Amino acid sequence: MSAPLLRIGLVGAGWVTQHHLAGWQREAARARVVAIADPSRANAQARAEAFGIDTVYSDAQAMFAAEKLDAVDIASPRETHAELVRLAAMHGIPAICQKPLAPSFDAASALVDDVAAIAGMRLMVHENWRFRPYYRQIAAWLREGRIGRVQQAQMTLLSSGLVADARGMLPALERQPFIATLDRALVMEILIHHIDTLRFLLGEMTVVHARTGRNSPAMAGEDHATVAFDTAAGATVLLLANLGAHGEPPALADRLTLIGERGTITLLGNTLTCEGERPDIRRYDMAQCYADSYAATISHFIDALGSGAAFETSPADNLRTLRLVEDIYAQNPAS
Ligand SMILES: NC(=O)c1ccc[n+]([C@@H]2O[C@H](COP(=O)([O-])OP(=O)(O)OC[C@H]3O[C@@H](n4cnc5c(N)ncnc54)[C@H](O)[C@@H]3O)[C@@H](O)[C@H]2O)c1
Less packed terminus of the chain by CB within 10 Å, N or C? Predict the structure, then answer.
């Protein structure tokens, strides 16, 4: 007999939840989102109608009180996460919570301690970047030793999202207006993914040097950053990012080069290459990979809930990413 469908509550109905809900839809044989809670009735209603969800609530407390849920998916703004995770814990409900777990390392660490004190509370951080198919492929090649020990890595995120387009609009802020208001913007909101992905691929790292800055008057927080890391395994890593780079596409497109003792792996555009003794080349549909990363994250959450296995992006693991984010800000006290 197949297991009963998991009843999922979604908290937040903003931009990102179109991808969450599409991911949950792919898991229709195992789970169903039965309710959404968001103080914006219009946002909640729009998602409920688009994805056939029965009930909307104006806050999570009301949803927890009225619904019998097996898990909750928290996709509201960062400053609400800790309170909502604690609420889920109080109701004994497992949670998957969008990054960043909290607005600072200290707040996230206090939350993780509280959650650990509640026996049986299962919490996964929704950190989907590392679940992109090309990063999973790179990880597989590294495990196979295709390029030997990695000596140098460079990850680049250059976007013209903060350069006015022909309509005079800033595409990055049209897509996600709240980014303009964040005092911790590029690193805490976006590069947190790249740092987590670098940790996933290369192991633990330390921040050697970090400089952040703001060029766009539309932004409250930083919009460019240059960071150098050392890995525990002895590689040097450079992360270069700028949301106002003229001539680059407005969309966020990662470039990555990993130079190993016996080969090189390069991600450029939609093409992933492995040079060395066993050359390989793969091409990807990047929009599909974006959607797939959300679905894979949700799928992992369901798998681990069922099996009792540890979450790959557990709170303890994610705190190591947040530690690096905090170390970058510590070197840039004005940001
Ligand atoms: N993993 C990714 O690639 C990715 C991409 C985009 C956003 N995010 C993360 O997702 C989260 C939401 O981002 P977004 O782009 O959807 O933001 P958004 O501003 O589009 O939407 C936020 C929604 O949350 C609602 N909300 C506010 N307070 C709430 C509360 N207490 N309870 C329930 N709902 C509440 C708002 O009314 C709004 O509908 C953030 O943590 C962000 O960092 C992750």
Answer: N
